[in-house]
């Protein structure tokens, strides 16, 4: 297959956009519906990536591919979910400030552990050896296929989030986010509801982390900075935290604009890519967020969840 | 102290509760049957704290609560709701980001009867909600919001309904309508109701028995017909 037409930057940029959309969609359930301000997205994302990497590269597998890969992928997802269960248990009853600091602290702890536990993670040098579970020819072809797999995973996440929006469970999440003391008298355990939401969301973030690890082949501490969390949060808030499409639109307008339009199509000096662009990216994200929140406090798509959704729930 | 009308469904024995080390409810004991039981008292008497304690939203520091013979003192609020205690707080009784329909729907997450059946009953009781079904609860007026909160609690098919000052701040038209609805709910559904109220005159019109709270203690528990103005004034410390 001739893929010369496909720009490598464009492919990688699009991969990043779709992955951040996945993170923002999961965050939408936590922040947009249940109002859990998870600022530790990158922590769960990194745990998934490293748990996958450790099992996949450190274990002397006696079974053939693709089982080691699939088992490691599942392991990364489950470990991130368990981390979510633990962190969720600690923060579920805290005020929003406590949740914010707690989750941010968790992501910091993960970053420190990744750097210090050199025997497992490779420390600052990084962890290599992550490869695609298939080989269909040239690198670009493998990357395109891997992007397709990510697309399917994020599509599944979108469908799940979309279904939750229309389900009694989704209404319970909104009720918990609106007024938790009152939601406690609805007859459903709000603590467990939040806990499972957090654990499932974290597992999804871990899976996306593992998928990203395979794409970049090398896991390094610099790759698990706050910018991953910020990309998901800024995109979601900008698009509208209360809307499913808010996550998609917001991420396309922020990460998409920078990682695709700016990096692939603007004639910028190559030297900018390592120093200026990452800083400029955060600055533009911040400025865009401030402007949108001033003009449309609930994001571009607003706070009203859906006329169509309301009509559909009435048919339930 | 007068006994409950019919067998007691709620028995409260020497309960104490409050906030952050401050005891608000100071050793209350009473029983409530399938009746309208009004809790009257001045501002700060402890009416809201009492109802939130019965709904298990505030922990007990002493005493016990039995509901239909079961000790519910240590249960979580969602468990007492599941047992059949519906709670309507004084304010913020509806979820603003859900529509009226969705608010009623989340109220009906527990209970055995079909949700549609219960929804129809609630909408028959509060026909105004029918026209507002697709409106976000956050956009409702005070009176509409109270109706919705009450309807949401009724969706749980409660055996006992805790109503915390349902008419506070409402126009006279809504006040009259609400007290009529309270009687209707009690008579048609046979639900026991504990009604915390400041409006003693209206509360006494619908109540079977009344407890006058004074600084967290029961000044008296009496049949509603037997309560005198002097007793009421003394209880309100006027």
Class by SSE composition of chain B: alpha/beta
Helical content of chain B (DSSP H or I, runs of 4+): 25-40%
Average predicted confidence as pLDDT of chain B: 90
The low-confidence parts of chain B are none
Strand content of chain B: 25-35%
Tell me about the largest β-sheet of chain A: none
Q: What number is the mean pLDDT of chain A?
A: 89
Number of strands of chain B: 10
Shape of chain B: globular
Measured by DSSP, the beta-strand proportion of chain A falls in under 5%
State the end-to-end CA separation of chain B: 22 Å
Helix and strand element order of chain B: EEEHEEHEHHHHEHEHEEH
- Structural shape of chain A: globular
Give me the Rg of chain B, rounded: 17 Å
Which residue ranges of chain A are poorly predicted, with pLDDT under 50 across at least 5 consecutive positions?
none
The total count of helices of chain A amounts to 13
Biggest sheet details of chain B: 6 strands, mixed
**Greatest chain-chain contact:** A-B, 27 and 29 residues
Structural class of chain A: mainly alpha
Task: Describe the structure in your own words.
The complex is a heterodimer of chains A (316) and B (238). Chain A has a domain at 9-225. Chain A is mainly alpha-helical and 316 residues long. The N and C termini of chain A lie far apart (48 Å). The longest helix of chain A has 27 residues, at 139-165. Helix content of chain A is 72%, strand content 0%. Chain A is globular. In chain A, helix 2 (41-58) crosses helix 9 (190-216). Chain A is built from 13 helices and no strands. Chain B has 238 residues and is of the alpha/beta class. Chain B has nine helices and ten strands. Chain B has helices at residues 47-54, 77-83, 100-107, 115-125, 128-131, 142-154, 172-189, 200-206, 229-235; strands at residues 10-19, 22-32, 36-40, 60-67, 70-71, 85-88, 160-164, 192-197, 209-214, 217-223. In chain B, the strands form two sheets. In chain B, strands 6-7-8-3-9-10 form a six-stranded mixed β-sheet, with helices on both faces. In chain B, strand 4 and strand 5 (70-71) form a beta hairpin. In chain B, helix 3 (100-107) runs parallel beside helix 6 and helix 7 packs parallel to helix 8. The longest helix of chain B is centred in the last third of the chain and has 18 residues, at 172-189. The mean pLDDT of chain B is 90. Chains A and B meet through helix 7, helix 8 and helix 13 of A and helix 2 and helix 3 of B.
